[in-house]
Design a protein that fits this description.
- By secondary structure, this protein is mainly alpha-helical.
- The chain has one domain.
- The protein is about 70% helix and about 5% strand.
- The chain has 5 helices and 2 strands; from the N terminus they run αββαααα.
- It has a two-stranded antiparallel sheet with strand order 1-2.
- Helix 1 runs antiparallel to helix 2, helix 2 packs antiparallel against helix 3 and helix 3 runs antiparallel to helix 4.
- About 25% of the residues are buried.
- This is CASP-like protein 2C1.
- InterPro entries: CASP/CASPL, CASP_dom.
Length: about 190
């Protein structure tokens, strides 16, 4: 019986370590996306006028920067929670385990949806900047602000990877949540056990 408990404890520790690594990667990717797009500026001369491209020129990019920064902060807090639970609260029962698991599950889902939605909205705005919209007489901007567009593309890649990682973390949260509920299935009859 003790070998089973030791194996279960080792499995929980490995799962916590994997979740921590994934949360750390998501935090780094989201922070990189926020910094790449948030600190990005480029000044060019267009028809004898100096124009400066910033993240605030495109509302979707500004929202992406704020959402990615919030996601990075959230993942950092969850990483600290994972660290605390794996180091200091190992084996101690918690009265509010289900409530905490539900909260983590819902926050992970919300973070995944928001990160994905803002990344896709920013990508759509970037497609307009890349190709222009002739019906609205919007010209291409990426041939003028090349470095700005390249950095935005890099931030979109980081943000999309963070969104995929956050979706994986929501699966982990769902597993951790529903593990707390007992199975409703009855055990198989003894004739099937063999």
């Amino acid at each position: 019986m003790s070998s089973y408990m030791e194996a279960a404890a080792a499995a929980r520790a490995a799962e916590a370590k994997t979740e921590g690594l994934l949360r750390g990667a998501c935090a780094l990717l989201a922070a990189a996306a926020a910094l790449l797009v948030g600190l990005n500026t480029q000044t060019e001369t267009v028809l004898f006028i100096r124009k400066k491209a910033t993240v605030k020129d495109v509302q979707a990019l500004w929202v992406l920067a704020m959402a990615a920064a919030a996601a990075a902060g959230y993942h950092l807090l969850q990483l600290l929670r994972c660290f605390y639970l794996s180091r200091f609260a190992d084996g101690k029962p918690c009265r509010h385990r289900r409530a905490i698991a539900w909260l983590c599950f819902l926050l992970d889902k919300g973070c995944a949806y928001i990160t994905f939605a803002t990344t896709v909205a920013a990508a759509q705005a970037c497609v307009v900047a890349l190709y222009g919209t002739h019906a609205l007489q919007w010209t291409k901007l990426c041939n003028i602000y090349t470095r700005f567009c390249e950095q935005v593309a890099g931030s979109l890649v980081c943000a999309m990877l963070a969104a995929v990682g956050t979706a994986l973390l929501s699966v982990v949260s769902a597993r951790n949540l529903f593990r707390l509920y007992p199975s409703m299935l009855s055990p198989p009859p003894s004739s099937f056990v063999g």
